[in-house]
From TrEMBL:
This is FAD:protein FMN transferase. One of its GO terms (molecular function) is transferase activity. SUPFAM superfamilies: ApbE-like. It catalyses: L-threonyl-[protein] + FAD = FMN-L-threonyl-[protein] + AMP + H(+). InterPro entries: ApbE, ApbE-like_sf. Its cofactor is Mg(2+).
C-alpha cells in the first residue's frame, strides 16, 4: 500500500503543496522527514518572493524597475546552505557563487524570448516582469535541492512540489508509482478536464481565469494552456507562450523547435470551452502521459 504525506506552504500569495510517497513501512519516517524538509522549502520560496516580487519595494525586480540593475553584476556567498546541493558543493563550505538568482532568471527570460520568437516577453506594460518563469523555476529548483535527495537516498519512492497550477514530480527508478495530475476546468474550479499521468516531469498551467489579463497577448484564442515537459521552468515558459501567442502561432513555434517537439505535450482550453490536446509527433488523439 502506498502512503502519501502532504504539507502546505503559503508563499508568493498562493499555497504550495509538498508531497512524499512511500510504502506502508515508510509511513512513520515520511511524517518525520516531510516535517523536517517543509520549513526549508518554505524559507527558499520566501527568499525567491523577496527577490522577485514586483509588489515589494525592496525586491531586486523593483530595484531594476527603478533603473538599478546591479544585481546582474553581483555574486552571492553561500554558507552551510541546502542550496549548495544543486551546485555539487559539500555542506559547510563557504564560497562565491558565480551569479545571483536574479542574474540566472534574467538570462533565462532572454533565452525564453528568443526560443518563443518574442512571445514570452519579460517586459509587461513597459516594465521588467520575469514572473512568468520565476514560479516554475523556483518550484523546480526547490524540488531538485530538497526533495530529490530523499528519492536518491531511498527515504521515499516519489516526491512532488506544486503551486499555482505548476508541479514538478519525480519517482524512484525501482518504484512503479505514478502521479495523477488533474487539469482544472477554468470555468469550474471543482471540475477536471483531463488527468495527466506522470512519473518524472512537470506540468504548468497558464490562463486568465484567476489572474485576468496579466500576460501581453497577440491573440485571444486560448483561455487556458496546460503544458507537460521534463522541466517545470520550460513547461511554465511554454504555457505562458501559448496564452501570449495563441494556439495556431504556438503550434508553429513548437514545430520549428525539435526539442519542444520531442518533449512537450499540452491541453488547450478555448474561450468557448472546447478542449483540445496537442501532442507533436504523437498525434492529438492519444491519452496524455509522460513517463521519463
Amino acid at each position: 500500500m502506498t502512503v502519501i504525506q502532504a504539507r502546505v506552504i503559503h508563499a508568493m500569495t498562493i499555497p504550495f503543496t509538498v508531497q512524499l510517497a512511500g510504502n506502508a513501512q515508510q509511513a512513520v519516517q515520511l511524517t518525520t522527514v516531510i516535517d523536517e524538509v517543509t520549513p526549508s522549502i518554505a524559507d527558499y520560496l520566501h527568499h525567491i518572493e523577496a527577490t522577485f516580487s514586483p509588489f515589494r519595494a525592496d525586491s531586486q525586480v523593483s530595484a531594476a524597475r527603478r533603473g538599478d540593475w546591479s544585481a546582474l553584476l553581483s555574486t552571492q556567498t553561500a554558507h552551510n546552505n541546502a542550496h549548495d546541493v544543486s551546485q555539487g558543493v559539500s555542506r559547510g563550505a563557504s564560497h562565491q557563487l558565480p551569479h545571483t538568482d536574479f542574474a540566472e532568471i534574467y538570462a533565462l527570460v532572454q533565452q525564453a524570448k528568443e526560443l518563443t520568437h518574442g512571445h514570452f516577453d519579460p517586459m509587461h506594460a513597459g516594465q521588467y516582469d520575469p514572473t512568468g518563469i520565476v514560479k516554475g523555476w523556483a518550484i523546480e529548483q526547490a524540488h531538485q535541492r530538497f526533495l530529490m535527495p530523499l528519492i536518491n537516498t531511498g527515504v521515499c519512492e516519489a516526491a512532488a512540489l506544486g503551486g499555482g497550477g505548476d508541479i514538478q514530480t519525480a519517482v524512484a527508478s525501482n518504484s512503479d508509482f505514478t502521479w495523477h495530475i488533474g487539469v482544472q476546468d477554468p470555468a469550474n474550479p471543482n471540475a477536471t478536464l483531463r488527468t495527466i499521468t506522470l512519473r518524472n516531469g512537470a506540468v504548468a498551467t497558464s490562463g486568465t481565469s484567476k489572474r485576468g489579463e496579466h500576460i501581453t497577448r497577440s491573440a485571444h484564442d486560448l483561455a487556458q494552456a496546460t503544458v507537460v515537459d521534463d522541466h517545470l521552468t520550460f513547461a511554465d515558459m511554454w504555457a505562458t507562450t501559448a496564452i501570449s501567442a495563441g494556439e495556431q502561432t504556438f503550434r508553429g513555434i513548437v514545430a520549428s523547435n525539435p526539442v519542444a517537439q520531442s518533449n512537450l505535450m499540452a491541453v488547450f482550453v478555448r474561450p468557448d470551452g472546447s478542449v483540445t490536446q496537442f501532442m507533436p509527433g504523437s498525434g492529438d488523439d492519444k491519452p496524455l502521459s509522460h513517463t521519463h
